[in-house]
Amino acid sequence: MLTTAWLNSYAQQTQKMYLSGTGSDHTVQWDFSCSAGRNSGKWTTIPVPSNWELQGFGKYNYGWAKDSSRGKEVGQYKYKFKVPAAYKGKTVQIVFEGAMTDTEVKINGKPVGPIHQGSYYAFKYDISALLNYGGSNMLEATVAKHSANASVNEAERKGDFWIFGGIFRPVYLQVLPVQHISRVSLDAQANGHFKADVYIKNAPANSMVLAQIFTSGGQSIGTPVSIKADSLIHLQTKITSPKLWSSEAPNLYRVDFTLMQNGKALHVISKKFGFRTVEVKQRDGVYVNGTKMKFKGINRHSFWPTTGRALSKARSIEDVNMIKDMNMNAVRMSHYPPDDHFLDVCDSLGLFVMDELAGWHGHYDTPTGTKLAKEMLEHDENHPSIVFWANGNEGGHNEELDPLFRKLDLQHRPLVHPWEDFGGFDTQHYRDFNYGIGNYDNGHSIVMPTEFLHGEYDGGHGAGLQDYWEAMWRNPLSAGGFLWDFADQGVLRTDKNGIIDTDKDHGPDGIVGPFHEKEGSYFTVKEIWSPVYFERTEIASGFDGTFHLENRYNFTNLSQCTFTAKLVRGADVYGKTKAAEVSIAIASPNIKPFEKGELKLNLPSDFKSYDFLYITVTDNHQRELFTWSWPITRPEKVARKLVVKYAQGQATITETDSLYKVTANGINLSFSKTSGLLRKVKNAKGVIPFNNGPILQEGLTNFKSFSQKIEGKNVVIESTYDRKSSYNTLQWTIYPSGWVKMKLRYFPGDYFTNFVGVNFSFPEKEMKGVEYMGSGPYRVWKNRMKGTRLGIWKKDYNDTETGEKWLYPEFKGYHANLYWVKFNTTGQPFTVVAEDEDTFLRLFTPAPKDDQWHNYVVKFPSGDISFMQGISAIGNKTLGAEDTGPMGMKNIFYDYEKEPKRAKELNLYFDFSGR
């Protein structure tokens, strides 16, 4: 019998002849004229594929187009091409992978078929009878940005995203034998059962179809299957123990279909696929390959600032890698089908996909939607990564189209209506954390929000995710969810000197910036969604190196991961202690999916001499899951090493009418006699403009009745406690060395406070940067504490406003777990050392942000530099901070009754020597 390899060497495979480039990174110039807007009314050239706004034509339009008058631009394209004479007698189709929005095509002056309406769908025409074979041909395409079909505008142009025009995906000729395989629908189940529907165009007499399955390495497996050819044939076989496809193990196979007549191979096509089963058990969950899933997903637009919706395979690879690097396992195509190469990459790298028919509060009419749904399914159906179909979004559901998905999809994948409780899935968007007291968490549907924690500027995404995810993880009816969204939609405006435009607060919703700059939430999500979960562990006396783990993988044993650890000692601010680290070998624990176990470290006897412990986990694809850090040394111990109290001489004090003036080792300090606040700092080099503190935040700065005394060689200035009028107390100790200690005992202003701590003043214009020991390099919020690492960090000053500027990490904001910080200024540096655990450093105030819903608003202390023991949370576009879960609530304090023993205490040391 003839082998399929021999047959394929003689059979004609489908040929492609690109008329355009293959993507945004490889384009071809076509002749072009735009009817309106910039550079209109003249013939010039344009790269194809592209969106014409990004090439200097027409007008920019960010969705929400109620009358669509801004989008009534028409682009005319012309391109000359030659067709080989050898194509004569074959079927030649012209394929457009995507054009916005209505496309009329002519070859050599003759229409090829009806105008195609709809932007995101591949469409094709048979142009065999219109070509000059062996000669020159003229392609003309007229593309109207605004559709003549009102329902297309409702579904596509009124969305909450940028609206573009033009041929934005590749155009090519597809050349086949007259008698050919026109379509193949595959269904490969986890049990090895393989089915295919094979559609034949012009099936000849005495013909048959032969199918053979191959591994990704090209080795044939199973027995070749053949069946008599017809216009539609149903073919099936079974493979013993196939390697299954999942997001964790994306095993792919290839199947070749050969159309034969009388032993002669006429046409062969190849398809990649994966064996995997998707099953929905109502009132239970979604199962992939028999395992119940929690989808850790993100919404993703097809978008790039300089090319709009015109992308490349390299861009798809970058996107999928970034999504997987956040330990996500799923992506939703919002709100339209993606490029074919994006699905190819999801198949090969492993990412579950929800593919979506366009619609955003509006939907296609039934005839149009039927045609476009068919185009989407036939184009995308064989990708194993696709595990859901979505019929529109947020009210943009044409229910008359629902039966098509099951009818046209051989695999019968589940269909959802994002935003609705439909088909056994409650996918409601942006429910606040406590909505669970209603039907959302206590109903009977599988809960899977297709959008939640709506990012806006720096809010959402990681902020609140820890509370949501732990609740999702524990809820048997939860199938996870999809964050909104992946990248800020910031367009490089060719009409505005290259600014990045996010249409105010409409577009800065991403977890990464327009050019994929990583925001703080990127790392928070990475830690929270790590499939290796560390239960909370304190490294204290008696610690034996044991960590308790939970395996949150679906299919992977932790023995397949690599664990490494190291002990880290940071260089101190004065360079007395040198940085050092030592690696520790770890045996990967044998912990099955969804089970718990222990990780054991063999720590050296001197491990307590180090500051931090790091553990890094890498998966079996060499992708780092996260690097966790634990403190070994407490701030009080570091303070003892750094602070120098003794020196020759002693501190001295004098008084004026309003000030205490203290001198020690060349440092001159002034304190208010009535309030105790630091008024002035000066040394031999000049004034350090750090002053006007400590001012209590959400508490009363009611220090009163100050006195001064000499204790040994120290000067002590302290207030007097009074339960009614001066229950907060302040003590300054100035040592002969010039170091200053502030000891504050205080009561928060209320049981519920946005933040607690103290402020000082410092002119922002004089700040150059900081070096600090603590958690970094990204800032934190009360409801976004994960994603940082303990260490020594250096940050130069920047004025980044998240989602408006993209130089990360941001300088301004809260930084956790402070040990010490050195402020580098345009004048002299100065250093502050924290003695207490869990001290936050606040650096200035980011510019205020708001939108029409007033959810994002972030409260900050007054002043410029703060040392806090409780910080504020952050909201997002749809939820205020307190609606994102317990971590988003205000700080809650016990009724201290204003008794000294119940007060909070904050201890800081200051070095104003200018070192």
UniProtKB/TrEMBL annotation:
Catalytically driven reaction(s): Hydrolysis of terminal non-reducing beta-D-galactose residues in beta-D-galactosides
Binding partners and assembly: Monomer.
Domain Glycoside hydrolase family 2 catalytic per the UniProt entry, residue ranges: 278-497
Annotated Glycosyl hydrolases family 2 sugar binding domain residues: 44-177
Family the entry assigns: Belongs to the glycosyl hydrolase 2 family.
Residue span, Glycoside hydrolase family 2 immunoglobulin-like beta-sandwich domain: 185-276
Cofactor annotation: Ca(2+)
Any one Gene Ontology BP term: lactose catabolic process
Pfam families: Bgal_small_N, Glyco_hydro_2, Glyco_hydro_2_C, Glyco_hydro_2_N
Beta galactosidase small chain/ domain residues: 710-830
GO CC entries: beta-galactosidase complex
Molecular function as annotated in GO: beta-galactosidase activity; carbohydrate binding
Domain of life: Bacteria
Source species of the chain: Mucilaginibacter galii
Enzyme Commission number: 3.2.1.23
Enzyme class: hydrolase
Stated name of the protein: beta-galactosidase
Keywords, sorted A to Z: Calcium, Glycosidase, Hydrolase
